[in-house]
Amino acid sequence: MSKKRNNSRKNGVRRRDFLVAAGGLAAGAAAGYIISKSVAPPTPVLPTDIQNIINQRGLSPEHVTAALKTYVPGGMQDEFYMISSGGHSGQVIIIGIPSMRILKYIAVFTPEPWQGYGYGNKATMNLLEKASNGIRYLTLGDTHHPEISRTNAVYDGEWCFIGDKLNARKAAISLKDFRVKDIVRLPNIQNQHGGACASPNTEYIACGSQFPAPWEPGKGYKPGVTYYPLTEANYKDYWRGATIFIAFDRNTGKFDLSRSFEIELPPYVQDLEIIGWGPSDGWAFLNSFNTEMAIGGTLEGKDPLEISASQRDFDYLHIINWKKAEQIVREGKYVEMNGVKVITLDTAIEEEILFFAPEPKSPHGCDISASGRYIVIGGKLDPTVTIYDIEKIKQAIADRRFEGEDYYGVPVLRFEDVTAAKIEVGLGPLHNEFDDKGNGYVSCFISNEVVKYSLGPPDYTGDDPFTVQDRITIHYNIGHLATPESDSPEPKGKYLVALNKWSIDRFEPVGTLHPQNFQLIDISGDKMSLLYDMPIPLGEPHYAKIISADKIRPITVYPLGADPYVIVNGGYATHPQAINVGEERIERRKEGDTWVTEVWMTAIRSHFTPDIVRCVEGDLVRIYLSNVETTRDATHAFAISEFNIMVSIDPGETTTIEFVADKPGVYSFYCVEFCSPLHLEMAGYLEVRPKE
Ligand code: RUQ
Ligand code: CUA
Questions:
Q1: How do residues 234-247 score in pLDDT, each as one tens digit?
Q2: Which of 21, 196, 464, 579 has the most CB atoms around it within 10 Å of its CB?
Q3: Residue 195: per-residue pLDDT
Q4: Which of 381, 491, 464 is nearest to 453 (CA)?
């Protein structure tokens, strides 16, 4: 065992040296330190007991500084919330910054017994059911990019959105109670990059389609129905990408397909989308790759997709005039496909709502500077970030300066006409985030670093615009990075979190799959410094949004009888079957051909009333469970043995539990949250009498 440990340490060190060397090679030496000429003040001496702890634990001055900058004592709260995707766990993770304490997992696309999500609670079962694809009940998802609702493009802390890359779904989560309020299946697309971007006032949440889907001309894509043999020729003719602008209603927490629209796109892989503000208000930007339109076929004499989709030196940044698209829809120039208004590719070209600009080599990421002027793309296979200027884009479009058009006739702008700069940063640049001083930060996956560079005016007003300013090595293989309120007009700077895919030797090993590593980095000074490594034990988090804690204003207790899943005028609807103590009852009656046993039940420390429920085999049992507590945290949970039922109800909440009593017997049910000294007594029985 100890030998193995040593080996892995050695490997870790070797790898780190290699990674540092690779970073240096890729981008030249790091910027030198500035040596202060002023006389240093005398070093204050730490009390001996503190110095002893430092000595005993073998901590360096950097460690102690990092600890002091990140430690948040119990009772004190963090400065920021980080809303992170939970990757293929299908969930969302809430983390405090700078402490990096995990505060909550939010069940979204995957049933989660602890939250009573998808295990008998009818509202959550319905959410998952409604968002399934019509072929099967989907209970998993792959979340990538969270988004926060905006007012005038600034994060307002009311709603959070997250997509499912695997099944083209989008979810809305209220930041008042951190619960999902709606999940919608996006029509005509098969995947989407798990993401979402909000328009400046959250009228729409937009995203691109990622892998194109087969489309029947004029009819779009229907899961389990649309079919063409997969050939290169068919791919060009029948496969399509799309971007959807899905309308969202804050007052109900629901997406509204009837007010949404889609734009048909060529079958490139549409990757990440962002909607602009300020000078780019009304425009959306979407990077893409595989403009080669390769389909793979390794056992059919073709190159693997990774080769055939990386032939061209340029792919296309999609530039979308969404305000004009909205107008086009109003004028009726759309085709209705699978319940959504679709602007066809031909109409999009004709009405001049879609333009392309070349972007270097299989790019990734699409981010906007605080001013709304610069759109920044990572090169992925090109060691640069490319910075587009919306003013130049608008001018080139007005002047009709195009270098040509793509295979489908979409006009392509000239690279030189629309870019402000191309900065060489490091190997494998992916995503960009921004601070409050006009600097950008790019994640470099291959060279394992975060590279800081300056933008141009009006974001950056110093005398060395578009220049690398600093770099820091991360551990290891960074994908996204996140800074507070980046990609908005008011980034806050201060911290950066590197979302690293691999942790290798950074934590105690827990088997062959290590946790991923979130590294907190201090970006408040000229030089970045590493503060904290945080293991992430759930899924592969892709992206996170960070928001000032004072913008999040959750409720503390639900109003009595509230149904958390029905929002009316921004507040909670009262559950129609909510009751108070004294109103409990059981009724059995026939609904059509089915016998239904309905139970109006209350939960309060430390009993359920009724605590004996009798029904007959085959009955549909509906329990309306009201938690009539009014004290914060006085949550009860209700589980029935052998029935796969687990429901969690917070104080004030009423919920419906529905199941078929399909097997005779007597089954215990009990409260699963340790709620009082007599919590173990908070129990009862379900009697299912055999059918005569
Ligand atoms: S991805 S590591 Cu955002 Cu899904 Cu780039
Ligand atoms: Cu209620 Cu334990």
A1: 999 999 999 999 99
A2: 196
A3: 76
A4: 464
State the amino acid at position 690 in one-letter form.
P
52: helix, coil or strand?
helix
Which tokens is 304 given?
């693997």
Residue recorded with tokens 């004996």: 612
Amino acid letter, residue 40: A
Which strands make up the sheet holding 384-389, listed edge to edge? Answer: 364-368, 374-378, 384-389, 419-424
Distance 676 CA to ligand 2 centre (A): 7
The predicted structure's pLDDT at residue 27: 37
Residue 681 and residue 676: Cα distance in Å, rounded?
A: 10
List the chain residues with pLDDT less than 50: 1-36
Structure tokens at 597: 């046993």
Tokens of 620: 């549909």
Residue 98 is given by DSSP the state T
Locate the ligand 2 atom nearest the alpha carbon of residue 679 and give its number. 2
Q: What does the pLDDT read at residue 484?
A: 98
Rounded to 5, what percent of the chain is helix, strand, coil? Answer: 15, 40, 45
Domains annotated for the chain, with CATH where assigned, are 3-65 (no CATH), 574-689 (2.60.40.420)
Q: Which residues contact 632 (CB under 8 A, 6 or more apart)?
A: 556, 557, 651
Helix, coil or strand: residue 49:
helix
Strand ranges (E), 301-426: 314-321, 335-337, 340-343, 354-360, 364-368, 374-378, 384-389, 402-405, 411-413, 419-424
**509 Ramachandran zone, left/alpha/beta (phi>0; psi -120 to 50):** beta
Give the single-character DSSP code of 527. Answer: S
Ligand 2 pocket by Cβ (under 6 Å): 636, 671, 673-675, 679, 682
Residue with CA closest to ligand 2 atom 1: 636
CA distance 414 to 30: 33
The DSSP bridge pattern shows strands 620-627 and 594-604 to be parallel
Pick from 685, 669, 663, 659: which is nearest to 617 by CA?
Answer: 663
DSSP 476: S
Q: What is the pLDDT of residue 183?
A: 97
- Find how far residue 614's CA is from the centre of its chain: 44
CB of 374 closer than 8 Å to CB of 487: no
> Looking at residue 380, what is its pLDDT?
86
Nearest ligand to the CA atom of 365: 1
* pTM of the shown model: 0.92
Cα separation, 520 vs 528, whole angstroms: 10
Q: Collapsing DSSP states into helix, strand and coil, what is residue 45?
A: coil
**119 CB neighbour count, 10 Å cutoff:** 21
How far from 487 is each of 102, 162, 276, 431, 520, CA to CA, in Å? Answer: 24, 16, 9, 11, 19
- Ligand 2 center–CA 561 separation, angstroms: 18
pLDDT of residue 38: 63
Per residue in 569-602, pLDDT tens? Answer: 989 999 999 999 999 999 999 999 999 999 999 9
3-state SS assignment for residue 143: strand
Ligand 2, atom nearest to 635 Cα: 1
**How open is the CA angle 115-116-122, to the nearest 5 degrees?**
140
**H/E element holding 255?**
strand 254-265
Q: Within a 13 Å sphere around the CA of 530, how many CA atoms are in the beta-carbon half? A: 15
Q: Read off the tokens for 507.
A: 């934590």
pLDDT > 70 in the chain, percent: 94
Q: Looking at the CA of residue 680, tell me the nearest atom of ligand 2.
A: 2
Helices (H), 228-377: 232-238, 305-308, 322-330, 345-350
User: Cα separation of 8 and 25, whole Å?
Assistant: 25
Distance CA 85, CA 117 (A): 18
Q: How far apart are CA 180 and CA 477, in angstroms?
A: 31
